[in-house]
Every structure is written in structure tokens, then in C-alpha cells.
Amino acid sequence: MTFKAVLFDFDGVVVDTEWAIYQAWLRTFQAHGHDLPLDVYTRCIGSDFETWSPKTHLEELSGLSFDWHDLDQKRQAEIMSDLAGEHAMPGIVSLLENLNQWGTRLAVVSSSSHSWVDGWLEKLDLTKHFETIVCRGDAAQIKPAPDLYLEAAKRLGLAPEHCLVIEDSLNGTKAGRAAGMKVWVVPNRVTAGLDFSIATKVFPTIAVLSDEF
Questions:
Q1: Residue 64: closest CA among 72, 55, 53, 73
Q2: What is the DSSP letter of 89?
Q3: Which residues are catalytic?
């Protein structure tokens, strides 16, 4: 297959941030006597709490109301501690370098904030690989709506069918498909149990993708 651009999701594709985030949420649930199975939690992966909210879910399970401001601060501190020293996903740097050398245009398209995504890309010296970075707030709706991916194609001046999406979540896959793009999925340890039958292709690791171009 030949594509003019490859659009990368960020969390779980470029950096393995999702496991630490899930573990922090799991500890919050367990501290209040409840479990948070992955098949429940993954409803919000790739999107936001408008799609499905662990906060609302815990309040419904427990019958309690929580001071989410304090809990959010504590959880975020745990996440950053768990991610200290985190590197790019195995195989992602060599894939980006190969695509750059082949003249393929690259973008990051994420439902997360610019402060989160841009911060990580700068920290890991990955910003140089991407022509544009599209995040929450850059389009009317985030994933699973197609808006962010369509915004990336617009910025690159390309038709959607000339763009390939690399995703790890079902919400992201839905967004890419709704945008009229091919979607290759590389599940991670958070999303491995999801049904990706709507994806164009599913791969076991990022490292094998270079052979597909």
C-alpha cells in the first residue's frame, strides 16, 4: 500500500501511557471496594469521559459522591510517578525515521490535550518527525467522531483516502474509519481484548509495520 501521510494516535501508540492511567484508576476503584475490569474501562480509551466516565461509574457503583478535584490531583501524581523514565513504544522511533526517509508525511492525532502530547513529544525528541500535531480543541469533536482526523488531512492538504491511521483504541479506529481513512491497529495491553474487526489491518507490534510500506 502507498499512502501520502500516516496519522499516528499518541497514547498507547507513540508512548505507552495508557497502562499507568488505567492502573491509577483501578487503584481508585479498589480503594472504594470495587473492581474496574479492562472491558469496562476501555469504553473511554481514545476518547473522553463524555463517551463513558469512570467517575460516574464509581459513583453509581458506590452510591457516593466524591471530591474529584483532590482525587484527580492524587491520581495524576501517581500516573506521572509510574511514567517516570518512560520511553517511546518499542519500534516507533525506527518506524518514524523510515517514514521520514521515504518522504511520507506524518502527523499526530490525539484526543488528549496539547500540553500532554506536545510535552511528551518534546521530552522524547520526537516532535521533529511530525509535520503537524492535532489534539483536543483543534476540531469540534474528539474521537470517535472523525473531526480530528479530518482536521489533520486538511492541514496536510490531502484527501482522507490518501491518509493511513495508526491506532490502538476502538474509539480511534471508529474515528479513522468515519473519516474515510484506512486504519491499522496495534493493540496494547490495555486494548488487546477489544474487537477490531472494523480495522483495515491488525498487527501484533509497532516493530512489524515498516515491512508493510
A1: 55
A2: P
A3: 9, 11
For the stretch 111-161, pLDDT in tens is 999 999 999 999 999 999 999 999 999 999 999 999 999 999 999 999 999
Predicted confidence (pLDDT) per residue in 159-172, tens digit: 999 999 999 999 99
My answer on whether 138 and 122 are in the same domain is yes
Output the pLDDT for position 1. 60
C-alpha cell of 101?
526517509
Q: What torsion, rounded to 10 degrees, do the Cα atoms 39, 187, 131, 182 define?
A: -100
207 and 103 part of one domain: yes
List the domain range (segments joined by +) for residue 25: 18-82
DSSP 165-197: EEESSHHHHHHHHHTT-EEEE---TTTTTS--T
184: CATH: 3.40.50.1000
